[in-house]
Amino acid sequence: MKKIKNCKDSYVTMTELVLPNDTNGLDNLMGGRLMHWMDIAAAIAAQKHSNRIVVTASVDNISFSEPIRKGNTVTISAFVTRAFSSSMEVYLEVVAEDIPADKKVHTNRAFFTFVAVDQSGKPIDIPQLEPETDFEKELYEGALRRRQLRLVLGKRMKPSEAKELRSIFDMED
Ligand SMILES: CC(C)(COP(=O)(O)OP(=O)(O)OC[C@H]1O[C@@H](n2cnc3c(N)ncnc32)[C@H](O)[C@@H]1OP(=O)(O)O)[C@@H](O)C(=O)NCCC(=O)NCCS
Fold first, then answer.
1. Which residue of 1, 101, 129, 159 could cross-link 83, Cys pair, CB 3.0 to 4.6 Å?
2. pTM
């Protein structure tokens, strides 16, 4: 297995058609169904990066600004932005498309964190990631800050240890 991987090694794209059973009383896609599809796409990306079994450790806030209609297609793209020891951040973008009307809308973006585990569920080291494009480099740089924020919010890191967040919150030593 490669020791260093690139974002393109984990790139996944998944398309689903919104069927009646996926919708609410307004014929719009249910948020939970979209999150289920996003979890699957992100898990595949994390597996491709790590070549391991992966589990979802956290999901950053997802907002639903645009309804997605019955009959639309939903295309989810996902790739790993940065690898830490056993955990990795996955970036997702969701595009809804009304194909007959030839209309596409970017509806959501999100970051999920996955942890690679062995057969007994114990976290295991993964290959590091080297970003290539400007966009990948921007996501890579921000990943450390986002990781510290989610670990602080999850009470897994003391705010005083979150060095990358100091500039945002103007924290003192
Ligand atoms: C995620 C899980 C494997 C972490 O195990 P753990 O024993 O707490 O392991 P550690 O404390 O050593 O953490 C392992 C990694 O997970 C990361 N992690 C743990 N909780 C996290 C969280 N809430 N958000 C982001 N990362 C998290 C840690 O930062 C660490 O990353 P690193 O190795 O890259 O530094 C474990 O909590 C688990 O199995 N959770 C359930 C996962 C699951 O079932 N998901 C589906 C939900 S239905």
1. 129
2. 0.94
